[in-house]
Design brief:
membrane, glycoprotein, 247 residues, 8 helices, disulfide bond, mainly alpha, Tetraspanin/Peripherin, transmembrane, 58% helix, Cd81 Antigen, Extracellular Domain, Chain: A
Amino acid sequence: MHYYRYSNAEVSCWYKYLLFSYNIIFWLAGVAFLAAGLWAWSEKGVLSDITKVTRLHGFDPVVLVLIVGVVMFTLGFAGCVGALRENICLLKFFCGTIVFIFLLELTVAVLAFLFQDWVREKFKEFFEINIISYRDDIDLQNLIDSLQKINHCCGAQGPEDWDLNIYFNCSSESKSREKCGVPFSCCVPDPAQKVVNTQCGYDIRMQSKNKWDNLIFTKGCIPALEAWLPRNIYIVAGVFIAISLLQ
């Protein structure tokens, strides 16, 4: 039996090792995301009781980390092995998936621009659902706190949205110490304070609204993000172009 041998490799040596170098970084990043996600789940006891995932009504940021990790791990592995072994099937899978992800990102961006009112309403619903589940998951809590502190905002449309949470609502039936308050991330920071006062939002909404401006952020996070985007459109465009070039 005679075997035909190619005089030249199907993939150039330069391109082969450039692709391998890029994908080993991509693969290691995927491993890091997966490790971080699994560690976070183990800290919350999810790995010992996987049903905890279904009992959380809000958004679990760890799920997003794990999804990104799985995609990066799979693509990085396919790219590494495909480049080293010159496996055309794996390289086609890698390139095809990257193109699909890019087109998906582009489609989402265009649709979000065309249907801004629908996106705004869905984001409002999403934010309100997560306000309800604020105390149910520590990662979700940290995510909302970070969003409010960075954007100097409170709630989806304003501080009153925290009435949706059983710990912060102002109903007479509530026995919570945080009743009629807001999370500490809504508080206007005091430069003189070296230690974060996590009780600064207690009873705030029992006071008259004209006093709120000096104590808490009164703008909702949706209006704050809408105001942030036009001011930073070049940064957003630059990030999108950078991601596109990497892909």
